[in-house]
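Any chance you could type out some protein's one-letter sequence along with its backbone structure tokens so I can compare the two?
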Amino acid sequence: MNRLKDLRTALALCVLPLIALAQTPGRTMTEQKTVYSFAMKTIDGKERPLSEYRGNVLLVVNVASRCGSTPQYKDLQAVYEKYKERGLRILAFPANNFGGQEPGTDKEIMEFCETNYNVSFDMFSKISVKGEDQHPLYRYLTKESPFQGEVKWNFQKYLVDRKGNVVAMFPTKIKPTDKELEQRLEALLNDTM
């Protein structure tokens, strides 16, 4: 009988803290996965946890230098300049997954972006956005976010709220300056949490 009582006591000591944790406001028993769960390498080779962007609205874009949509760099820069003071951050991920349209090294890509488009938003090291070598961030975006489905082409855009949740996806044909995208951006930037 004492053994059963000891077992119940031990079980209570294990379960009660978990119940208390689950009832603590703002906490869950398992933290929800968001874009903040990932760390990425910047285009200049430094490790950056995406949690550093907490509280900002993010536009996550896979980019390429030799694509028919490459002029969207100009639009991305214009949107960044317009909204950066309100908390917009653009995270650009060069990828060579579509027709070999991003063959350069990180250094070559950055030189191209600075020279041709005066890019000042955040550029990251080249990654794969689909296929067997798909980066875990893009695996999350395409398989675990509410906007599941393979990345179709360069300059596909994911919009992320100030809490790190993916809230929209825009295909290549929707430019960063299109009314539809800017309206969603405005709404998210107006929400200060």
About this structure: Residues 2-23 form the longest helix (22 residues). Residues 146 and 166 are 7 Å apart (CA to CA).
